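Now for today's protein.

===
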Amino acid sequence: MTWPPRRHSGGSRNPDHVPSGPMHIAAAAGTPVVALFGPTSPVRTGPYGRGHEVIRADLTCSPCFRKECGTKKCMDEISVDRVFEAVRKMLDSVSSTE
């Protein structure tokens, strides 16, 4: 998967949709995951297991499970700095245990 995710239509009606398959495969293999959630719920869709970091905006409208949204605020409020810091901490903790 490329970062940042590219906008694509790939059969999805939502051009901002990023497939979650790689997250589920990594989690099932025991690899720690940093997962971003907007309109969906990590309680409902994972990642399951220990050692994962879920990042989401604390909004009353999320999770809404809508495929389309006029604002996309739940994703827009997740900052690059917040994601970068979560990835950095996870990489630091993984490398300190090796």
Notes: Residues 80-96 form the longest helix (17 residues).
